[in-house]
Write a structure and sequence with these properties.
Number of strands: 11
Helix content: 25-40%
Strand content: 15-25%
Distance between the termini: 36 Å
Oligomer: single chain
Strand order of the largest sheet: 1-3-2
Radius of gyration: 24 Å
Order of helices and strands: EHEEHEHEEHHHHEEEHHHEE
């Protein structure tokens, strides 16, 4: 996977002259992300998804946080049928919250007082096809372990305890490997917050991401799950239909059409049918068929 660019012949040669497939997430989801994919899995016809999903805007029901709307709806007088896709989420510190990522809220003041904000982590997760808190929860855990257990508690310990006495052992390696920056935070403990430079950061001047920024950074680095599903859907043809199953925890639907309807249809197909059979003792037993 890579951004779209002109001179891709050298990369294609590395894969046996395999030409890239160009797909844009805007045809599958509420956000843009035009990318090249080098993939030798036959691409299925995705029109059953794209014909509907390409018309889904970033303010589709439940995608934006409550009380927020799209700036474009303020700009155009007749925006009822205007399809608005969120711009491509980027990963650099200067671009994760630039003026291409804006939404608005008015509170109770109507249009007389409009507040502009960037898309939240929660909204970006949804638009990229990720389950809620998929990125933010692990990051919250890591930042808390470092801030509270690796720094604050050892520094305020009256009996000389170290981070090893407080921190989950699984995170010990982070204490010394990560490059950190401290920022004051007033009003509540621990009275500071940290920024973390990413492991692949190799610039002379490092970029330090706070917790929310780091989540947005990872989402900006990631793949749109709807597009990846479309790329991999051809693998289904390699298996008999009765051998396919949905693993526990993976029965997730993207929260917009047509995926919601297809998800409901699959749920109906899985409804258990009770079959009555006599066993060797002429008693009835029930079998659930899915």
């Amino acid at each position: 996977e890579n951004v779209v660019f002109k001179d891709f012949d050298d990369i294609s040669k590395c894969y046996g002259d395999l030409e890239p497939i160009r797909l844009d997430a805007k045809d599958y989801s509420p956000c843009k992300r035009s990318r090249f994919y080098w993939c030798n899995i036959p691409l299925r016809n995705s029109e059953k998804y794209t014909s509907v999903a390409s018309e889904v805007s970033a303010d589709y029901d439940g995608i934006l946080d409550p009380g927020y709307g799209l700036v474009e709806r303020l700009t155009y007088d007749d925006s009822t049928h205007l399809t608005v896709k969120a711009n491509t989420f980027l990963a650099s510190l200067t671009k994760i919250d630039d003026d291409r990522m804006l939404k608005y809220s008015t509170g109770d003041s109507g249009r007389s007082k409009i507040k502009l904000e960037s898309y939240s982590v929660n909204e970006r997760e949804k638009m990229m096809g990720l389950p809620p808190s998929y990125v933010s929860d692990p990051l919250k855990k890591i930042f808390n372990e470092i801030t509270i257990r690796a720094i604050f508690q050892p520094e305020t310990s009256a009996d000389g305890k170290t981070y090893r006495d407080f921190m989950d052992r699984r995170y010990w390696h982070l204490r010394k490997k990560l490059k950190l920056q401290h920022y004051p935070k007033y009003g509540e403990e621990p009275y500071f917050e940290i920024g973390i430079a990413t492991p692949i950061e190799n610039k002379k001047k490092l970029e330090f991401f706070k917790e929310e920024q780091y989540s947005k950074h990872l989402i900006g680095m990631g793949l749109n799950i709807c597009v990846i599903e479309a790329l991999l859907e051809g693998l289904v043809d390699l298996f008999a239909s009765d051998s396919l199953k949905t693993y526990e925890g993976c029965d997730y639907s993207f929260p917009w059409e047509p995926y919601q309807s297809y998800h409901c249809d699959r749920q109906k197909e899985k409804t258990a049918i009770t079959i009555t059979q006599p066993n060797s003792h002429d008693q009835e037993r029930q079998i659930e068929v899915y």
